[in-house]
Amino acid sequence: MTIETPSTPAQLTSEEMSRARLPLAYRDKCAGLLVPLNRCRYEEFYMPWKCQDERHSYEKCQYEEFMRRVKKMEELRAEKGGRSGLN
Q: What are the extents of the domains in the chain?
Protein backbone atom coordinates (compact mmCIF):
# COMPACT_ATOMS: atom_id res chain seq x y z
CA MET A 1 0.00 0.00 0.00
CA THR A 2 1.25 3.52 -0.76
CA ILE A 3 1.21 6.56 1.50
CA GLU A 4 -2.08 8.42 1.42
CA THR A 5 -2.21 12.16 0.84
CA PRO A 6 -5.36 14.30 0.83
CA SER A 7 -5.51 14.38 -2.98
CA THR A 8 -4.57 10.75 -3.65
CA PRO A 9 -6.04 7.87 -1.67
CA ALA A 10 -3.99 4.82 -0.77
CA GLN A 11 -3.73 2.42 -3.69
CA LEU A 12 -4.86 -1.11 -2.87
CA THR A 13 -3.41 -4.20 -4.44
CA SER A 14 -5.64 -6.64 -6.32
CA GLU A 15 -5.36 -9.02 -3.39
CA GLU A 16 -6.51 -6.37 -0.91
CA MET A 17 -9.46 -5.48 -3.14
CA SER A 18 -10.39 -9.16 -3.42
CA ARG A 19 -10.21 -9.58 0.35
CA ALA A 20 -12.47 -6.54 0.75
CA ARG A 21 -14.85 -8.19 -1.76
CA LEU A 22 -15.02 -5.13 -4.01
CA PRO A 23 -16.83 -5.70 -7.31
CA LEU A 24 -14.58 -5.33 -10.35
CA ALA A 25 -16.38 -2.16 -11.44
CA TYR A 26 -15.27 -0.38 -8.24
CA ARG A 27 -11.60 -1.39 -8.32
CA ASP A 28 -10.14 1.95 -9.33
CA LYS A 29 -7.91 4.62 -7.83
CA CYS A 30 -10.59 5.44 -5.24
CA ALA A 31 -10.91 1.89 -3.90
CA GLY A 32 -8.70 2.85 -0.97
CA LEU A 33 -11.51 5.15 0.19
CA LEU A 34 -14.34 2.78 -0.64
CA VAL A 35 -13.17 0.00 1.68
CA PRO A 36 -13.35 2.14 4.86
CA LEU A 37 -16.64 3.64 3.64
CA ASN A 38 -18.19 0.20 3.19
CA ARG A 39 -16.86 -0.89 6.59
CA CYS A 40 -18.37 2.23 8.21
CA ARG A 41 -21.68 1.66 6.45
CA TYR A 42 -21.80 -1.93 7.69
CA GLU A 43 -20.91 -0.97 11.26
CA GLU A 44 -23.46 1.87 11.32
CA PHE A 45 -26.26 -0.21 9.75
CA TYR A 46 -26.31 1.95 6.57
CA MET A 47 -27.84 4.94 8.37
CA PRO A 48 -27.72 7.84 5.87
CA TRP A 49 -26.49 10.42 8.39
CA LYS A 50 -23.52 8.27 9.41
CA CYS A 51 -20.21 8.00 7.51
CA GLN A 52 -20.69 11.36 5.79
CA ASP A 53 -17.00 12.25 5.89
CA GLU A 54 -16.02 8.94 4.31
CA ARG A 55 -18.74 9.24 1.67
CA HIS A 56 -17.75 12.80 0.82
CA SER A 57 -14.08 11.80 0.46
CA TYR A 58 -15.00 8.89 -1.81
CA GLU A 59 -17.34 10.96 -3.98
CA LYS A 60 -14.77 13.75 -4.28
CA CYS A 61 -12.17 11.20 -5.38
CA GLN A 62 -14.60 9.83 -7.99
CA TYR A 63 -15.26 13.36 -9.29
CA GLU A 64 -11.55 14.21 -9.49
CA GLU A 65 -10.88 10.94 -11.33
CA PHE A 66 -13.69 11.74 -13.78
CA MET A 67 -12.24 15.21 -14.38
CA ARG A 68 -8.79 13.66 -15.03
CA ARG A 69 -10.32 11.36 -17.65
CA VAL A 70 -12.16 14.27 -19.30
CA LYS A 71 -8.95 16.32 -19.42
CA LYS A 72 -7.04 13.38 -20.91
CA MET A 73 -9.75 12.91 -23.55
CA GLU A 74 -9.60 16.60 -24.45
CA GLU A 75 -5.82 16.35 -24.81
CA LEU A 76 -6.18 13.33 -27.08
CA ARG A 77 -8.77 15.14 -29.20
CA ALA A 78 -6.50 18.19 -29.48
CA GLU A 79 -3.62 15.98 -30.65
CA LYS A 80 -5.93 14.34 -33.17
CA GLY A 81 -6.93 17.72 -34.60
CA GLY A 82 -10.24 18.21 -32.83
CA ARG A 83 -12.04 15.26 -34.40
CA SER A 84 -14.20 13.18 -32.12
CA GLY A 85 -13.56 9.95 -33.98
CA LEU A 86 -17.19 9.72 -35.08
CA ASN A 87 -16.63 11.63 -38.31
A: 19-80
E-only strand ranges, the chain: none
Question: 71-78: long-range contacts (C-beta < 8 A, 24 or more apart)?
Answer: none
Contact indicator for 1, 17 with CB cutoff of 8 Å = no
Instruction: Name residue 72's amino acid.
Output: K
As a whole number of angstroms, the distance between CA 11 and CA 63 comes to 17
Q: How many CA atoms lie within 13 A of 20 on its CB side?
A: 22
Per residue in 54-75, pLDDT (tens digit) is 999 999 999 999 999 999 999 9
Distance CA 30, CA 2 (A): 13
Q: What is the pTM of this model?
A: 0.81
For residue 33, the SS3 value is helix
